[in-house]
Structures
1.
Amino acid sequence: MITKADLEALIQRQAQPGSPVLSVYLDVDQSHAANLNRGFEAALAHMLRSIEEQLSDASEREAFRADAERVRRFVADYQPRAKSLVIFCDDSADFFWQRELDAPVRNDAYWSETPYVRPLLEVLDEYERYGVILVDKMQARLFTVFMGEIEEHREAFTSDRVRHTKTTGMDHIWSQKHFQRKADMHVRWHLRTVAEMMSHLAERYAFDRLVLAGPVEATSELHRLLPKRLRSRVIGAISLPVDAGEKDVLRATLQLGQEVERAEELKLVEELIAAAAKGERAVIGLEATVAAVQEGRVWKLIYAEGFTARGGECTQCSSLIPEERRTCPYCGGAVRPLDHFVERVVERVVEMEGRIEQVRGRAAERLSEVGHIGALLRF
Ligand SMILES: [Zn+2]
């Protein structure tokens, strides 16, 4: 699993002159026919070859081959279990970082001064941490879902499971009513206990969003009983039997999560457009956005999936220049062109503790109509 600290260490890694990092995103998903019989090794070899072919300098090529060989060796020994593999390697600095992801990535490789983390940031943005509570009248189960993986926390509710009250053969009407009432009380008590426990569990398992699952009567009653603070994290309810398997819980949760994320992205883009039109702490378009990044004003960077742009970075003052120029407009220093300009903008925002939001689908189309990228500002 990838933590925020992991990611920050990667982003903070300083460029070492003459010692680039090889970044590899490899699809190893065994449900893709191309990856069977270790087809992903061929895909890797192909990507590495095309980078090497672009290197004209002999010493550069030698440094690249050392990085490439180390990655190739690792992948040759790798037994695919996850959907993707992410590797960053700089052999000359003895730097090797790899993680498996249960989320899909596009095959891609880069050789650049700093680790190419944009696809990783995008995956993390897409996969928030969900808590899923599966309840019925008598039981409660807790799951967390992160980056396409699900985990059940069996210990969460064990002590508080409500046992079913067994009837003892008294079958006249008064008795049935009496037992029914007693059973109803148990159900209410059970759901109230679950709701109370959820506050602690939300802290312990650190989920951003909560999904209620189970029969409709149970989830709607639980929703009513949840503390306000938790209720605001509920993104929806799904109808599932309380003994549903992990796979079914995962599938339903991811589907709900995606629908919610898409709707929120569209809302965010509309808010950005409206705020920028009124000049209320928002900018749209590459030039204005980069200027805001330079000034340290970006609170949330928003950009359309797949957006790329030309630009460079000043070798003297590190300013980002959103166009092709040779000299820096701020200090007159030389400007170095960047292959992955938008990525560098994203990294700057993360370094400033800003947030990033890559939008897809309809939200991306809408944002592209007005300038592909924008930002909500701190001031
Ligand atoms: Zn400069």
2.
Amino acid sequence: MKKPPARITKSPKTQKPDADAPRCGLCGADENLTRTECCGEWICDDEDSYVIFSFARNSCHRNHRRVTLCAYHHNEGHRGRWQNCKKCRESFPTEIYVWYGTSEYNFTKLENPPAYEATCCSGCKTVIKLSGGGYSESSDGIFCEKCTRKRFRASERD
Ligand SMILES: [Zn+2]
Ligand SMILES: [Zn+2]
Ligand SMILES: [Zn+2]
Ligand SMILES: [Zn+2]
């Protein structure tokens, strides 16, 4: 009869770092935190440091509030989970819906984002990323940055 070899198992609990200390779920900062109203996650309490009109996306709290379905769903008072909320789905063009649902400012991302047709420039047919900005919309269609500038110059010449 052989004895099974003795195994020495180290308890993982001996040298545990302070894993329970709250950290911002977006950037990992551990100072100046607050909980989000929509989902109760720890996040930087940094709205005050945001410079108005700087257009910088440098505030975790602000980003989660503005660029996620989670916050939108909560602010609009929808019921249930945002991940399968029909009202949220109907509130945005699919591209924007997918962007809000999968942006880096989410704690949980949309698991199966719906497919969507890319938006193309009415002028040169380049694909326009609605999340990227820099495009313009008019009664003639939607135009990329280049075509917007071209059209602007053309209208100035008149
Ligand atoms: Zn943060
Ligand atoms: Zn949230
Ligand atoms: Zn919703
Ligand atoms: Zn174009």
